[in-house]
Amino acid sequence: MLKTAQYLRARGIDVAIGGSAAGMADFDLIHFWGLSPMESLYPVFFHAVRSGRPIVLTPIYWDLGRYYAAMGSFQRLRLWNEQRPLRREIAAGSARVFVSGEKEALALTKDVGASLPCTVVPCGIDTRLFGGAPDVPGTRVGVLCAARIGPRKNQIALAQQCALRRLPLILAGPAGNPAYLNRCLQYQNVQYVGAIPPQRLAALYRSAQIHALVGYAETPGLASLEAAACGCRIVTTTEGTTEAYFEEYAAYCDPYDPGSIGAALDAAAQGESQTELRSAILKKFSWETCLAPLPEVYQSLI
To answer: What is the pTM of this model?
Structure first.
């Protein structure tokens, strides 16, 4: 969202970021981000509709029903299912839905049970920061996971599989769930470096052999894109839009199957340096390239 605002401002478009209904009538268009949490999203959407302004949506969506069921979170599963009519109302009430890939469009269409006016606007990265220098042979070691620490990102399963293979694992990201982080740190191969700024994160990407995001939903995972641009081999989940970005160059796993995660780590560890993937990411997924369709779509709706 912040990178989109930066891109639009550089092209002379006035952008304000806010989470309330105040002042909506002062704008030509309203752009919503995410389909959760519904309790705060829906009231603002309701006022946006009443403002009469065109609405667009970047849903950042994946069906979490299977995840909640697998975790035994039946109250959240019930709420997820109960909120489906609200998701449908918001998606159907949007003049355009900007998805990160066709797989996200299909998942959202299936959930809300309606055809939607979708446009693919891929996620991007700062290629100047994460482009990096060419690899020095033999300098990369271990596995890095740059992500918020918590059950959705499935770092416990990753730590287990890395421990079985004696692979050092570095976790980088905010830890909103200290108990979950402590469970990860019970494995002696795991090191936690906290939430670190992008410049330091780029250096970590360039020192890791593998970057692994084995969570239950990624669309597609900005950290995976950044790591690929820095030359990491990529282990990622099948749950989300990942294949549209990494094609045959990543090792994919089923996050619900620990053995699949281990097999993906093995494949990545034995793979070759991903120079082709790095080149493709830098060419296709800069923010400037990915966001180029937005001003024209905005103008057509206004």
So the answer is: 0.94
